Amino acid sequence: MADVSPTGTTTSGGIVELRVHGVSGSGADQVLNRPYVHQVAGDRSGGFYRPRPGYPDSTGTGGVTLEAYRWSDLPSGTAVRTLSLVFLLPFMLCNVALWMHPAIHGWKNVVVALCRVLALTLTMLYVLSIVGVAVDLIAWRCMGTPACMGGRSWLSWLSGRPIGLRLGVLALVPVAAIGLVWWLSTRLSHSFDAFRTREPAASKHRLSAVGQWDGAPLVGRLRSVHVAAAFATLDGSLLAARSSQHRSPTMVVLLAATGGLLLTCLVLVAAVRSIDRTDPTPGMDAFFRGLRTIACGVTILVIVHVVISPAPWSESRALPGYGAIVAWLFVSQTVLVVILAALVIWRRGGRHPDGGGRPAPLRALGAPVLVTIAAGLAVAFSAELVYRTADVLDRDGTTADGLVTSPPLAYKWAIFGFFLAVLSALLAAGVVTLLTRGRRWRAARAIVAADFPHAPPEAAERLRQVEQAVARARFTERLEPLTVVYAGLAALGLATSALGLFHILPGDVLQQYVGLPENFVNFFIGTGSYVIAALLLGLVIGGLFAYRTVGFRRYVGVLWDLGTFWPRAAHPFAPPCYAERAVPELAKRISYLVEQGHGVLLTGHSHGSVLLAATVLQLPARITDRCALLTHGSPLRRLYARLFPASVNVSALEEIGERVGWRWVNLWRDTDPIGGWIFAPHRDGDNETPAGPAAAVDRRLTDPLDVVPPPSDSVPPPIMAHWPSESQEAFAEAARDLIARLRAGRPGTG
């Protein structure tokens, strides 16, 4: 929609309050708190709205013009897209992990290279899981067994055919799976292409790269490498099976070509400086596309060779070499995770990663922790796919333990390790909850007693509810050690998959060394398989509810929007970065309003404050000199500075304050589990005492406003927690303060 000129309510030199919502997916009328709105710029996915002129109360605090930017459809989109992104969750987590490393001077490229190699192994695992279902279980095992073929007319058309033909035909299934993620990764980014910018970055901080950096060349190169590696993984699986009984000059050439492709892919993703180049390099891009084309050609030759090769095939129970390839991939992932964790622990130091001075022994471990969780989920999903298919095919067996279609041992160990890690993490969470409950409740009681010192006796139950809200909100700080514990357990479970190389069964090991009966262990593995299936089903249902239900999206949206906020720099099949559109669109709109002679009050709730922070870091001084910033429920310091210390830290936050002339107010509540302070926490035991203008940024809000009903009501005011603050008087007061500073052209004061 084309931009329309301001209405009569806006004059040159006036103030525009531009509101950016959080992850709730609220409509523009809810963000503006006005029932009648109209769109003035943008489209359905991301647009700018204003109250319709002529209706009562169409202006904001102090008569300013209200405007809202609605971006909630950018990261979600259609239900089909949402479901497809749910199944690509491990790719997204691996991509986010790359942005979570601490500021490691001189070792950044090594960390990036390790994250990208791990991302490449996830693509290979994706292909191997499809190969395990289509080629190993169906083409090799089931079609070679009359008992498995009985009553399955959908497979009978290949019954009795040569093994090579069966393998060649069913190899088209992983080819189609590779084509699907290839197509999705290309299609999902088209909607953001028009918003890329190549203007020089206005800030040195990495947060300014979001929406500024043109990641299309990098994503295109990574996509070519991953597609080539995916086809090479399929080729290697087929050639390993064929070479077990037959060797020929053609086989040697195909093996050499496949090995060369895989080695080239590993070298390319590890060559960070070359693959990250943003200057026009037609020759390099042509090389990457050529690598992908060669991989496609080699795959065609391998499938043809498997089909027409006259040599006999082995009579082995499983596809030769497949189980070993899977186990070695798990071993490689474990080694890479250990190296990444060791490097981060060695080089990060012991200080607080967001720029504070307190020791932080468990902080700044986000990169190895999240990449371990991503690998653990990918392994669990792949194992469940193969395991559940084997269970369906093996009608007479129990939980896929029959002799005909039992999955490779590496997958059994993976399910066992994943389930054990989940149970242990849940147990640790329960222990941490109990151990910290007393301290959290004591702090909550002190806060509530200070906020409501004269509460009457009849408000005891309401005071208890407020204390509970504060205590629960404080549990956010306890999630870091829990995720570290789970990641360690997941890595240990991933490492046990290597026992599949030695043909060691989980039941045999536990029965011999722990004393658990083998049948109990098999039941444990079967239960773990159902837990993974339930997790997958939950993700699908959650994706649908997050798309269709605004209330549900408020709880799961913060995690999803956090994951898709960062550009694709590790895995090309991850969901596209919606900030590639939102941040440039905001920057252009703010610049337009300032150039028209208006001052702009930027108000951002929750994740909207993160979008505004990235935008402010990109705007030139002539624009930010006419801007002020009001954030509420902001996760900038509480979550982002903890999780992304190299991108969001005290230095970056101070630069944001300086850019807007310290015309910045941040509202936060103790009941909020997501948002928090920016510079001054104002909590017992916190020693941070910011000086200068930064000390005046944070304003703590009492929540709720009271614990007894007002004279005009029969119930006490609600506990707002993470809900927006636009309807509260504290928000209007902060807005009036910033508007006055904008009109006077003066900065904030200490």
TrEMBL record:
Record-annotated membrane-spanning stretches: 79-100, 120-142, 163-184, 251-272, 293-313, 325-346, 367-387, 413-435, 482-504, 524-547
Keywords: Membrane, Transmembrane, Transmembrane helix
Family matches, as InterPro entries: AB_hydrolase_fold (IPR029058)
Keyword rRNA-binding appears in the UniProt entry: no
Protein name stated in the entry: Integral membrane protein
